[in-house]
Predict the structure.
Amino acid sequence: MSGPFASLLVRDLRLAARSGGSAALALAFFALVATLVPLGVGADLKLLSRIAGGVLWVGAVLAALLSLDRLYQGDFDDGSLDLIALSPLSLEQVALAKLLAHWFSTGLPLTLLSPLLALLFGLSGEGTWALFLSLLIGTPAVSAVGAIGASLTLSLKRGGLILPLIILPLLAPAVIFGAGAVTAALDHLPNGALGLLSAFSLAAVLLSPFAAAACVRLNLAG
Amino acid sequence: MFRYANPAVFMRLSGVLLPWVSGAALIALAVGLYLGFHVPPDYQQGMTVTIMFVHVPAAIVAESAYGLIAIASLFSLVWRHPLADTAARAAAPLGAVFTALGLVTGSLWGRPMWGAYWVWDARLTSFLLLLFLYLGYIALWNAIEDEARAARAAAILALVGAINLPIIKFSVDWWNTLHQGESILSGQIASVFLWPLLTMALGYMLLFAALWMIRIRTEIVTRRARNLMQRAA
Amino acid sequence: MTAFLAMGGYGVFIWPAYGVSALALIAMVWQSWAAWRAAKKRLEDLERDRS
């Protein structure tokens, strides 16, 4: 990692930690979803443990969404983005740094909280481990696809409303494979979900910086 | 091919083609309907097999339209083809309607088969996601005020969606086998059903082509009017 | 005639399917055509006013 890359990453992480604790907000949202669903569905732990994978995956995706619209917006609004664009870093590297910062400040904390929430659903040890692994592998994809959406809706006044509409369909594979990994653990039937999820995450993280950079370029030029 | 990039050339060309394409569409649809209703009942599905003749063509157009939008977006981003943005934007509402139509007809087809108005069949589920992709695309066009910027953003979204669409379909198929979902359309189609199906599919595609041309022409004319107004001001 | 409408008992599904399809197709044709006519008229009015 070159100097400018690391310093941009650290800067974004510090900003994330400072700005009203976006990590804390995402964690609280995640925990609330995990609380509301049993309230809606009933306390039957057998049922809850079967739906835990899907519910917690959807909850994690939605929680990660919360801080996405500020991924580029803050820097765009105060002109920092123009300055960053002038730095020795390519916009693709900037996009990658921001993606990683988002994951560290949102996806990773969500992953770390998940075993605790799995407890609320009576998920077995194997299921919890599968959930943890799937979130660890899959949340980078959420940040990656989310970053594309954030850069597309940059400079929109009400961009926050369109952002979920744009990226949630694109995240369907992550939810399917992620929750599928939990199902595999519960049924003791290996189904390759984690492998498919890894491929999806890898592809997303590799391609996202190019799409996001193109969008940022678009908005800076205007 | 960039000869057709000139709006005036497109207007002339489409003006000539439109009556023929529309006429052909009407004929194909009429023939398809006639064939469709003279088909023997399927031994498994009875006469509900006739729903296939309006469901599958809608599905075909819905998916092709997205492919066309992706190709147009590629032309817009890479080769800066001036009409490409207009073409992409014009196709989207049509594609969305055909997708919704595919969902409704699929639901009506599923009810007599599986007793439920919605089954999480792999195709219907992919279709639902495709509808959201269309809605997001249309919303993005409408949300960004600057037209040039909206065009490019939408083009990027369309390409990202196009890359992701096969992945989405694969993941939904995988998910379907995992949860042993039902399948509405499976296996081969008996040849007696094939002719009405192909004819209706052709009719639907020709109709889409005609409507697409009309909408692009409308956009070109609207732009001309806007230019006139700006010059007068 | 009633046999045709009943379609072996499935009529209640088949006819709505065809109905909504016809509705959607006609609506698209109508809207596209109406938008075209309106745009054409506007352009013609503007060109007339200029000359």
Chains C and A do not touch (no CB pair under 8 Å). DSSP finds two helices and no strands in chain C.
